[in-house]
Amino acid sequence: MRLAEIETILLYLGISGLGIFVFFIIYDLAKQSKAGKFGTIILFTGLGLGLAAFLVKTVVLALMEP
Q: At a CB cut-off of 8 Å and minimum separation 6, what does 48 contact?
């Protein structure tokens, strides 16, 4: 395996881990603030859209490359 392949795999693992950590932070925030079901959904929707936009941007840019 080449170094570039290892770096790519570790990059994807790191970004995935960061995404999971962000969702854990949102869940913990909802739990500590006693947001309830509706508040939790709003928190995941509002704060999760930032992460989703980053992922969509990455996919779109990868598809646009010649």
A: 22, 23, 26
Query: Per residue in 8-54, pLDDT tens?
Result: 899 989 988 988 998 999 999 999 999 999 999 999 999 888 888 88
Contact in structure between 22 and 51 (CB atoms under 8 Å): yes
| Domain residue extents for the chain | 22-66
21 closest CA partner among 57, 54, 51: 51
Report helix, strand or coil for 2. coil
Q: What is the pTM of this model?
A: 0.71
CB 34 within 8 A of CB 25: no
